[in-house]
Structures are given as C-alpha cells and as structure tokens.
TrEMBL record:
GO terms for cellular component: cytosol; GARP complex. Residues 24-275 form the Vps53 N-terminal domain. InterPro entries: Vps53, Vps53_N. Transmembrane segments: none annotated. This is Vps53 N-terminal domain-containing protein. It holds the Pfam family Vps53_N. Residues 73-100 form a coiled coil.
C-alpha cells in the first residue's frame, strides 16, 4: 500500500495540473479516492510534504509572476509616457513644418508677384523699344519721302517708301495722339498731296494726244507713276481713272459733235463713228 501511495503521489505530481485545474474538481471526492481506508493513511505525511512543496513552488511562481507583472506595468507606463512625449515632439515638429510651409508659400507668392511685375515691365519695355525703333524708321522714311517727292524721276522709290510709311502708320494708329506721330502724319499728308498733284500733272502732260504717241521714256515714267498711284490709294486711282475717261470721252464727243445735228438722230447713229475711219 505504501508503494502504491508513493506511486499515487508521483502520479499526482505529474497530473496535479490536470486534476486541480479541472472545472469538475471536487476536493472531498479526490481525498476519498486517494485514501479510501485507514490503512492508506500511512503515506499521508509524505503526501502533505509534497503538497507543501508544491504550494511553496506555486507561491514562488505567483510572487515572481506578480513581481514581473508589476515591473512590466511600470515599463509599459514608462514606454507609454515616452510614446506620448514622442508624439508631442512629433506634433510640435509637424506644426513647425506647417508654419514653415506657410511662410514658404507667402514667400513664393511674393516672388510670383515680383515676377509678374517684372514680366509686365519687360513687356512694356519691349513694346516701348519696338515703338521707338518703328518711330525712328517712320521718321527716316518720311524724310526720304520728302526728298523724293520733289523729283519726278524717283517715282519707284517714292512708291516703295509710301508703302513702307503706310504700314508703319497703321502701327502708330494707337499712338495718334502723340505729338511726334501727329507731326509725321501732317508731313505725310503734305507729301501725298504733292505726289498726287505731280503724278496727275505728268499723266496730263505726257499722255500726248491722239495724233502723237507717247515716247518710251515717258512710258517708263508713267509706269512708275502708276506705282505711286497704287501706293497713294484708291482715292487717287479713282481720280486718275476719271481723268482718263473724261479725256477719251472728250475726244469722242469732239468728233461726234462735228457731224452736227444730223448725227444726233437715232436713225443716223452709225454716222457718229465716221471719225474712226
């Protein structure tokens, strides 16, 4: 029986966790199963010693577990405080970065404003330089045109200068209130009137009559005069065409009227053209 008690104690040591941790554990039933009669009580002291050792072992384990848990709690609290401190530092850094970003955005906006101002200034300066260059070109062209307008053998050059001056004057329409541009416009008007008068006079003088043909030199001069007429515009061209039509019609009227009242009748219409034969 003693050997069996010793074996039971060993079994108890191996299976104590399963026995005591079982939800259906009943102490009285367990004791009755271990010591069913009086003879089995001989190993009770040894069994008690084993239980006391196990209790001390469990107490030590509990003590170490509680102590370790207490240390873990302190470490966890310390780590939590450290994490909170790091979060606050990170928050401060984020706020600082945000503040610097706002300052940078303000600086960028100021720089963009300055760039826009410089861009506007550059654009105005470029326009001013372009206007001054074209004004110098216009002044030189008008001066050259004044020199050529008094010479009737320079019609080709005058025509080219007129076209250039007209193109430049189109650009300066937006500056027509500027005194310098006004002065150049008045000078150009005088030159155009002078050229118109000269060209029309040349056509009247050099065209000759029906009996006299125009010489080759005069034809070249009149051809150059046509270039000037085109450069002067449709108004002068219409004046020249009106004069040419009147000139031709005057010749026709001269010959048709020479036939007297007889040719004025409708039934003698063919006699109006006898002058052509």
């Amino acid at each position: 029986m003693q050997a069996e008690r010793s074996g039971d104690i060993v079994v108890l040591r191996k299976q104590k966790q399963d026995v005591f941790d079982s939800p259906s554990f009943e102490p009285i039933k367990f004791i009755n199963s271990m010591y069913p009669d009086e003879a089995s009580l001989t190993d009770l002291d040894k069994f008690m010693d084993v239980l006391r050792k196990q209790i001390r072992t469990v107490d030590k384990d509990i003590f170490h577990a509680v102590r370790a848990q207490g240390g873990a709690h302190a470490r966890a609290r310390q780590e939590l405080e450290s994490a909170q401190t790091q979060i606050m530092e990170l928050y401060d850094r984020v706020k600082e970065i945000q503040h610097k970003a706002e300052e940078s955005e303000t600086v960028v906006q100021d720089i963009c404003k300055d760039i826009r101002k410089l861009d506007f200034a550059k654009r105005h300066l470029t326009n001013a330089i372009t206007a001054l260059r074209r004004l110098a070109m216009l002044t030189a062209a008008v001066t050259d045109l004044e020199a050529c307008s008094g010479r009737r053998d320079s019609y080709k050059k005058s025509a080219n200068l007129l076209e250039a001056v007209h193109q430049l004057m189109e650009y300066f329409q937006q500056y027509e209130d500027v005194p310098k541009v006004k002065t150049l416009g008045k000078r150009l008007t005088v030159i155009e009137l002078q050229l118109t008068e000269s060209v029309l006079d040349d056509f009247k003088v050099l065209m000759g009559t029906a009996d006299v043909k125009v010489s080759p030199d005069n034809l070249d001069r009149l051809a150059a005069g046509c270039l000037v007429v085109d450069a002067l515009g449709p108004k002068v061209r219409d004046q020249l065409l009106d004069w040419m039509c009147d000139r031709e019609m005057n010749i026709y009227q001269l010959f048709s009227n020479s036939g007297g009242p007889e040719t004025a009748k409708l039934d003698r219409f063919e006699k109006r053209f006898q002058w052509q034969g």
